[in-house]
Amino acid sequence: MSRGMRFILSFVVMAVFISVSGVALVYFLGSGGPTIETNSVLWLRLPDSLGEQEADDVFGLINQRDTVLSLVSTLRKAKADERISAVVLIPPITEGLWGKIQEIRDAVTDFKESDKPIVAYLEYGTGQAYYLASACDEIFMTPTSPLILIGVSSYEVFLREALDKVGFQADMLSAGDYKTAVNLYTETTFTPEHREMAQSLNRDIYDQLVAGIAEGRELTLARVRALIDEGPYRAADTVRVGLVDALVYEDQLMDGLPLGSTASVVDYADYRQVTLPSEPGSRVALVYAEGVINFGSNGNDLQGNQTVGSETLTSAIRGAREDDAIEAIILRVDSPGGVAVAADMMWREIELASAKKPLIVSMSDLAASGGYYIAAPADVIVAHPGTLTGSIGVYGGKYVAGETLEKLGVNVEVVTDGAHADLFSPTTQFSESARELVQAQIDDTYERFLQVVADGRGLSRDQVHQMAQGRVWTGRQAYENGLVDELGGFHRAIEIAKVEAGIAADSPVDLVTYPQPRSFFEVFRNAFGVGATRGALGVLISPFSEMVRYVLGPLPLGYVQGAPMVLMPAH
Fold this sequence. Notes:
This protein is an alpha/beta fold. It has 24 helices and 23 strands. The strands form 6 sheets. Strands 10, 14, 16, 17, 18, 20, 21 and 22 form an 8-stranded mixed sheet that branches. It has a 6-stranded parallel sheet with strand order 8-5-3-2-1-9. It is globular.
């Protein structure tokens, strides 16, 4: 090795060592909790994007990921902490699905039992932010912000005509008239079933929005509907009609709280590190199923979205099942589904665990298709009214780019042995015999799905079929149809787990996350190991496939290989 190469190598090693040492120093120095003054105000700014579980990587060690549970736990901690006199809640500006927002709204309602004031501050008044804010004692808003309280709308995109123009085809098959995930590629507009489902979901979420505002602001349902129809509002008009209590800037907000001149502010990022004294309690396992279902280990897709791997989840459930110290298991599901075979592998381990100890499912934003498949064996299923669930249906197929490639001057030659060896050729559509075989596989998976739900919910196959066929329901609709046992959030799931396990209602519970979080040094070993390099090279050697995945959406590996999908539409 030349002197120059040795110098470069030494420089790289030294840089990595300094980086690792610096991160380690930050990690260990930041492990102590802050000092909280008496008469403090918790400044709780909600992030635009909330996940379910802490990031298990290098950057997660430096900057803790905000999760639904960390926010809810912070509010519950502030409720009991005598040093916290009030809370200022700042809802996120961007809008998303409704389950997580309802989880936090429930925590606000619970906090109000302390008789401490909790006020909302809208930096920009979106409809979902206002829905959350309406649970607080008072609502303040910046003096120049409009209030975009205009109801609920959803939009569906159809690519069929655009794909036809470039010769790109989606050769898709499905089981269930409401399994509309393929409609994005195969239709130019709504099918009757698709429109019916979209209207039903939209209306139920709208009704939940109206009911929440009416309850929080002590208005009639008719008055709230009228106010929504008159929106959007200029800032001054929001006070006139009674939707907002006052228009203030951030520096003026504290002056309006009855806390005296000695009040101090503690930020959520600091307060979340505070630990209140508590007695050891019964051990309850907490297992997360967050993201699109696939084979292998948990990870992230090309767009940065969390994926849940069959290997990771089955290992976690098995560990909780075999641990004699664990008295119950809570499976927290936030998944639109994914690969059917991977979901079935998870189902098996969950079924075994449910037979041994109480297993409760707590649903977040999504527990649909494969996400509902894995929930079916639970003893009790708990969902929010706005959780999207159900979507009991199957689809599969392939993308056909032969004509597109031809227009680009790309020629693909194929050599095959076997009547259906080219079944998943990316250049030609299914032959009639191949189509029949693929449809039979999809139908078989659908029947399996129906039976899994029938066994888990104590229903007949035909009863499930009436609610299935790929149809998505809100949590409230799912509850009315018997697909969900109770409406509520994560802490309701804990209460049920205690009852099922014979734990006294007033006894504390220690949540044990499975799989166990990796240690500091395990994270760094994997981050700079062979696996990290191999993952990076994988993107470099297959740029075309990754580009297609990015453009067309998060396609699990099994999809490319032809596995039937249990994935909800518009995931």
